[in-house]
Design brief:
alpha+beta; Transferase(Phosphotransferase), domain 1; 30% helix; 10 helices; globular; disordered C terminus; 3 domains
């Protein structure tokens, strides 16, 4: 009878230095991690497997070469890379890394729940130090799959280390194009296949939100397609609305801002939020305050109305929150001869998003469709004028 327990060795590396045990430590879309053993050093390691069945032979060789480069990385906030090889029989790349006692930050958060602000800042600083090391190398390295599952903690020291570098890539030009990663943490430019190390900063911001709220980004979405739509439309995850600390919220929003405005890891390390971590402030010894889910403003809405005032047609968007009075009226000229609902809709959406990112529930597609419908109705009514309404001079009365 063949043994099948966790301590059973099920595979040996080509040069017989490493053994793989029959114990899975974690898995993701691209990678599975098993407990392993290093005969040379006499200690346990992580045996990481990346499936490459969909890749061509040239792509497999390139992936293997890139992973080999990671063996040269030495930083206290990066998991130490030990060895790598290509298993042609199984169409997989195997790489060996050190193993940390505390497991992933995702698992650790489930045990400790909400970390104190001081601990949160310490974690942020150590993750950014690791990213700074990767991004500022002579050939910058992009992680491409940063998330709490791939950040690890040493229980004995509390040190944080970035791991799961199996999807990392070395920058050989100004931009990279391959789409890889986890949808909830992927920056919009990844879907455009045109990205730089800034995508790791975006993912880091999503990790910070998860550390604070214990909710994965876009957990309100039912499937990857819904996540994709929100990401490309620049609609932030609803979990941000739970955060009731302006300083923490601003820090996260800065990390997930548009690519051209997104700071580097080096710039974030010098920001006020990460300074004076050890100061004697009562806030530092408490978790970040959160709002109740019922306070998220589920009835928040944007009301779009088209107002006709001779030529050109004036498109006005009035944003209201719940039953409150309209906060602001933003007007954009719409010239039927040169403008399209898409161009004007994008302008309206961008203007509102910057100021009302927490309460705007209208998606870009909804705004464009509304403009198209309302402008068409407005122009038709101009050709077939109706008797004027007593309140026609008040834009808020026009629908």
């Amino acid at each position: 009878m063949v043994e099948s327990g966790k301590d059973t060795i099920v595979e040996i590396s080509p040069r017989r230095r490493f053994a793989k045990f029959n114990e899975e430590l974690g898995s993701g879309a691209y990678k599975t991690v098993f407990r392993g053993y290093d005969y040379e050093e006499g200690k346990e390691v992580a045996w990481n497997v990346v499936k490459v069945m969909a890749l061509t032979e040239a792509e497999k060789r390139r992936l293997q070469d890139e992973i080999k480069l990671l063996k040269d990385l030495h930083h206290r906030n990066i998991i130490h890379f030990i060895s790598v090889w290509l298993n042609k029989d199984k169409n997989e790349v195997v790489f060996i890394t050190e193993i940390l006692t505390g497991g992933s930050l995702k698992t650790y958060l489930k045990k400790i729940k909400y970390p104190r602000l001081r601990v949160l800042k310490k974690w942020c600083k150590e993750i950014l130090q690791g990213l700074e090391y990767l991004h500022t190398r002579p050939q910058p390295i992009i992680h491409r799959d940063l998330k709490c599952d791939n950040i690890f903690i040493n229980c004995d020291t509390g040190d944080i280390r970035i791991g799961d570098l199996g999807l990392s890539t070395v920058m050989t030009g100004q931009f990279n194009k391959t789409i890889l990663g986890t949808p909830e943490y992927m920056a919009p430019e990844v879907y455009d296949e045109h990205y730089r190390p800034a995508i790791d900063i975006y993912a880091f911001g999503m990790c910070v939100m998860e550390m604070v709220t214990l909710k994965a980004p876009y957990s309100e979405c039912k499937n990857p397609v819904s996540i994709y739509k929100k990401v490309i439309e620049r609609i932030p995850p609803q979990g941000l609305q739970l955060i009731d600390d302006p300083e923490v919220l601003t820090f996260i929003q800065c990390c997930i801002s548009l690519e051209d405005n997104r700071p580097t890891a080096s710039e974030l390390l010098t920001c006020p939020f990460l300074q004076n971590i050890d100061e004697d402030d009562q806030r530092m010894h408490k978790p970040v305050p959160l709002r109740e889910a019922g306070e998220l403003g589920a009835n928040s809405n944007g009301a779009l109305r088209v107002v006709v005032r001779n030529e050109p047609v004036q498109v006005s968007l009035r944003l209201t929150v719940g039953e409150a009075q309209p906060k602001k009226l933003i007007e954009f000229p719409f010239n039927p001869g040169s403008d399209t609902p898409e161009t004007v809709g994008r302008e309206l959406y961008d203007a509102l998003y910057e100021e009302y990112r927490e309460s705007l529930s209208l998606s870009l597609d909804t705004i464009i469709a509304k403009i198209e419908r309302e402008v068409e109705t407005a122009l038709r009514n101009r050709r077939e004028p109706e008797p004027p309404s007593p309140n026609a001079s008040d834009p808020s009365q026009l629908h």
